[in-house]
Write a structure and sequence with these properties.
- By secondary structure, the protein is of the alpha/beta class.
- The protein contains 9 helices and 8 strands.
- The protein has helices at residues 17-26, 43-50, 84-108, 116-124, 131-140, 147-155, 170-179, 196-208, 223-235; strands at residues 2-3, 31-34, 56-67, 70-77, 168-169, 183-186, 213-218, 239-243.
- Strands 1, 2, 3, 4, 5, 6, 7 and 8 form an 8-stranded mixed sheet that branches.
- Helix 1 (17-26) packs across helix 2 and helix 4 packs across helix 5 (131-140).
- Bound molecules: manganese (II) ion (MN) (3 copies).
- Residues 62, 73, 187-188 line the site of one manganese (II) ion (MN).
């Protein structure tokens, strides 16, 4: 198995690199990419944890980017985490993330949640907190039963604690990934609720900036959507990626390495990697 999308406790997942490796081994994952949100700090510890094991680690990340008022997620695979252009972009992203988190925190005080930003940092163990951390606080304090409800009532687009964030642009993000020697991949393309023509337009701009792939299989996606994406992927001559988007046992329906298979019509993203997984 190959899993090119998952998160650790260095972003909004809850597992340590050691536990991610254990999970990967028990699911017989040969290739694992860690794709934490807007950070590469988990990569070195993940490599260290994988040293004695038969799992190949792919350096990755998941960037939040802005395209025409839409927030889109772009995965970078096979990146050099020491690349200066990429790291400069990550500094900007980190500032935006922290600014957003503080604003979300102050908006949540209006529904009676005190010090939400500090609580979120406490849950995360770092300051790069995301909406998933705030969702946990909302659940802990009895404002929502589930993560989905927390987003629907408070954190989602247009809701009380939604903050439009000045993420880097799609073009800059793709260029930084390419500059760092990586492959840029559109994450979960059907999750942005774009019209068909907008999605085609997004893919056009993405390819124009140097993007080469899209996720055809992601998380708990159903077969109809996999087929739809496989056709789209082929139509635009993109490489296909696959990942569980695993965060933790509560948040994620699909475990590491347990996502569905890529359809055979797809040309996989690892097509021209020097070492390729056997699938
Ligand atoms: Mn996440
Ligand atoms: Mn995502
Ligand atoms: Mn993700």
């Amino acid at each position: 198995m190959i899993d090119l999308h998952c998160h650790s406790y260095y972003s909004d997942g809850t597992l340590s690199p050691e536990l991610l490796i254990q999970r990967a081994i028990s699911a017989q994952v040969q290739y694992l990419a860690l794709t934490d949100h807007d950070t590469t700090v988990g990569l070195a510890p993940l490599h260290a944890a994988a040293l004695e094991h038969d799992v190949k680690i792919i350096n990755g990340l998941e960037l939040s980017v802005l395209w025409k008022k839409h927030t889109i997620h772009i995965i970078g695979l096979m990146i050099d985490p020491h690349n200066e252009t990429l790291n400069n972009l990550l500094i900007l992203q980190n500032d935006s993330r922290i600014e957003r988190a503080k604003l979300i925190g102050s908006l949540l005080s209006k529904v009676g949640i005190k010090d939400a930003y500090l609580k979120a940092c406490d849950i995360a163990g770092h300051e790069r907190v995301g909406r998933a951390h705030f969702a946990k606080i909302l659940m802990d304090e009895g404002k929502a039963d589930t993560m989905q409800v927390a987003f629907k009532r408070y954190l989602g687009v247009g809701k009380l604690a939604y903050v439009a964030t000045s993420w880097v642009t799609l073009g800059l993000a793709v260029e930084a990934i390419v500059c760092a020697g990586g492959q840029a991949v559109i994450a979960h393309p059907l999750k942005y609720k774009l019209t068909r023509s907008k999605l085609h337009e997004l893919i056009g701009v993405f390819k124009g900036s140097g993007g080469v792939g899209m996720e055809v299989v992601s998380g708990d996606i159903d077969d109809a959507k996999i087929n739809e994406l496989a056709i789209l992927c082929k139509k635009f001559d993109l490489l296909a990626s696959t990942g569980s988007d695993f965060h933790d046992d509560k948040m994620s329906r699909v475990k590491i390495g347990c996502q569905k298979k890529l359809p055979l019509i797809c040309k996989p993203i690892w097509f021209d990697w020097p070492e390729r997984p056997v699938v």
